[in-house]
Design a protein that fits this description.
The chain is mostly helical. It has one domain. The protein contains six helices and no strands. Keywords: Membrane, Transmembrane, Transmembrane helix.
Length: about 120
Amino acid sequence: MIIFDYIFYRIAHFFHKKDGDEGVRALAFVVVIQGLLLISLFFFIQMISATHIDLRGWSKYVAVVLMVILGGINFIRYRGKYRYLHTRWGNNETKEQKLVRGVLVLFAIVIPYLLAICTSLLVYK
């Protein structure tokens, strides 16, 4: 979970002037990233297994339930944690570390979208 903590911290830090310590946008980003990773995992399991579960009619409901559950879990996890994470990473990073880790955070935001798209296209050819 440390990777998600860091992603939450960096996005919350970026939007801190607008969101304050709550990090609502950061929470939304983390929830979407985790949801897309779980959906990609589901599609990947379907690709390698012999079973095929067609969720086309139910996919939006499954996605909403998944996002609500992840949102609740992450809300509890990150409520009031911005200051703690800021003391952990805010002053302890060099500029080089901050740059490299910032690029990795961008990859962590983009790659789940690409994975979900690619795996869904492969499963539902």
